[in-house]
Amino acid sequence: NYHKHMRQPQRNVEKYLEPFRLSLEKLKEVSVRLKKDLIRGLGKHSHHRAAVKMLPTFVRATPDGTEKGDYLALDLGGTNFRVLYVRVVEEQQKVVKMDSKICSIPQEMMLGTGEQLFDHIAQCLGEFLESQDLKGQTLPLGFTFSFPCEQKEIDKSILIRWTKGFSCSGVEGQDVVKLLKEAIHRRGDYDIGSVAMVNDTVGTMMSCGYRDQSCEIGMIIGTGTNACYMEEIKNVKRVEGEDGRMCINTEWGGFGDDGSLKDILTEFDEVVDQTSINPGVHTFEKMISGMYLGEIVRLLLVKMAEDKLLFKGETSEALLTPGQFETKYISEIEEPDSGLENAQKILTALGLNWDPVDACVVRLVCDTISSRSARLCAAALATISNRIRVNRGLDHLKTTVGVDGTVYRKHPNFSEELQAAVRLLAPKCDITFLVSEDGSGKGAAMVTAVAQTTCILPPSQQGATNPAAKKKKSVRT
Questions:
Q1: What spatial distance separates the first Cα and last Cα of the chain, rounded to whole Å?
Q2: Which reaction does it catalyse (predicted)?
Q3: Domain total for the chain?
Q4: What is the predicted pLDDT for the residue at 10?
Q5: Predicted TM-score (pTM) of this structure
Q6: Residues whose CB falls within 8 Å of the CB of residue 236, separated by 6 or more in sequence, listed in order
Q7: Does residue 290 share a domain with residue 158?
Q8: What is the pLDDT of residue 162?
Q9: For residue 307, what is the domain's CATH number?
Q10: Residues 361, 13: contact at Cβ < 8 Å?
């Protein structure tokens, strides 16, 4: 009876949703624009003014299945951080989490000095090593640090700026590996081996790469969105070298920051941007990721209620409050079996006076917003897979994408919609999607394992601190 209910208001609703419905032609245009931006971001003289930053990660290979040994991983991206002890088992081609510990960071420490913060991290790491009886060993460590950084080497990364509520003094502009090592040395009761800095997209790619060696793209669609992929070194103009590949962290959330997506932004996107903590920044991310989707839906519902298309023309205090329509509601309302029932519960909880038609319209709104997100993501992924294909001179590319993020994992049909659109936009690419297993933990350990064996580290550090790491013959002459 969905359509019986919908017949009357459908016509009027469409005019609100039309700007969010992107045709295949429009998605192809978006894909071509991103292609130009990737090239600009890779250029030696154009990268500093590029909207898509294309940051070199100094990760020069994906796993080949010969990696093994014991590693530590440190994952700092918010109010908690994790310490992990990970074993890479060659025979089973498996990354096994031996144990882990979550430590919280008190609010005052997020606003204190950098020295305090890193002393706290070093202390938690020390307590964890003690509990695992590992204090006598010097294990290599993968460090996932989810803040904007400029990576100089695999083990040197400069914090550009704090985000997510942190503002510790004396860290911006500094090398975070150096700060971590100094804090450990101040204690003097344990040491760590070589350090590999890991962006979370790279960890996502690497955690899938051990299971599937054709995994050469990492993608996150969660609170934020970003992707990385394996680029030919000769195209990475900021890094010396002609042979081989390097993983590039695209930072594609910034796509459109130079105004290149103006024609597809709606009035609702503009309000979301203006009321965000970073207006004018991360244009693409604000149309796609979990931090913003619920807010876009809320703004649409308010407008439609004010125009008397919903809730008998009445809103509620909750509906008028930013952030009150959570992105998880979209997933719940779009559930195939219980969606309309969930919609009714959510609308009631938001203090709205609804009828069955309202519930159907709200479901249609949610579907339109999440569908636009999936299709825009598909356009960006098509650009990257086509780039890999053309780079390698192939008529047809078979590759795998490691994916993570709550929007991809939890939304009932996001992944299907994304995959269907990619097939249309990159018909010469056959892409397998793998959901990552703990990219910032196991994936970080994998980056470190590969770093041990692929000449990423200076020769003095290679394998020296981890006798279990299998050394490959050096390819350099």
A1: 72
A2: D-glucose + ATP = D-glucose 6-phosphate + ADP + H(+); a D-hexose + ATP = a D-hexose 6-phosphate + ADP + H(+)
A3: 2
A4: 57
A5: 0.88
A6: 42, 56, 246, 248
A7: no
A8: 82
A9: 3.40.367.20
A10: yes
